[in-house]
Amino acid sequence: MHFVNAKGILSSGNGMNLYRGCTHGCIYCDSRSVCYQFTHDFEDIEVKQNAPELLEKALRSKRKRCMIGTGAMCDPYMQCEEQLGLTRRCLELIDEYGYGLAIQTKSDRILRDLDLLQSIHRKAKCVVEMTLTTYDETLCRILEPNVCTTKQRYEVLKVMQENGIPTVVWMSPLLPFINDTRENVEGILNYCIQAGVYGIMCFGIGLTLRQGNREYFYAKLDEHFPGLHQKYHQKYGYDYEITSENSVELMAFFREQCKKHHIVCNVDTLFSYFHEFPENKGYEQLSLFSL
Question: pLDDT tens for residues 170-186?
Fold first, then answer.
């Protein structure tokens, strides 16, 4: 872990990453790709130590409140967050200034900040996004070794449901010859149904591989699934989009179940939902602040 002073914190789309790198160890992680220009080891977390100051300045300067997103590139609830509390400090600012939040994670550490998520949702809007890829707990420990399991993430979704906080599940990626099965998809969907999720993001059954994450992924296949590296290479070569042979069948089942249970699964609709700020919600509470 090392510390830097960032020049800015919010992107043009009002997204932020408080950390760079990750310690979850997911074998498929696209964030390892060379195109993201990491100049340090991926597990050597870069901490943007001045992020709260930059965020407060940015929130003060905005003429109109909006949704703030985080977690798209690097999880805001890695182990280091327990020590540093950077995510919590930024959530406190989002809450104080009356902005909305769309936060994505794989970790049950998010429950630590339930009080802030509740407050943000009362005043504006909070959407918790949780990645679920692997229903089988043993397999999950191989694919996503240093973070809580899918069942524990399901329990987080249940807590959010009980507190009236909307949730969206990212069912991605699903790895050919590993977890691209009807049983796996059905297990994840059952969790989503039981937890009353608002939507499920799924771009198809497969994954993406490019320089950086491809080499790491194949090394992990050699470690845990002997012979599968060669099978991938023979079938997909150096393709960027790796599509499962079961994609058509599983996507049809996925859409059918979402329709049956009134779960939003249109990707464009969900991206719009993440950015839609409820202009009139919490007006009385917000009037207390000097914005």
Answer: 999 999 999 999 999 99
Give the type of residue at 48.
K
pLDDT per residue over 210-227, tens digit each? Answer: 999 999 999 999 999 999
The whole model's pTM is what?
0.94
Q: Report the half-sphere exposure of 159 (CA within 13 A, side-chain side).
A: 18
Among 286, 288, 289, which residue's Cα sits nearest to residue 125?
A: 286
185, HSE (Cβ side, Cα atoms, 13 Å): 28
Strand locations in the chain, DSSP E?
Answer: 2-4, 15-16, 19-20, 46-48, 67-70, 100-105, 126-131, 167-170, 199-201, 206-208, 241-243
User: What SS3 state is found at 255?
Assistant: helix
What tokens were used for 117? 């998520």
Which uninterrupted H or E stretch holds 276?
A: none
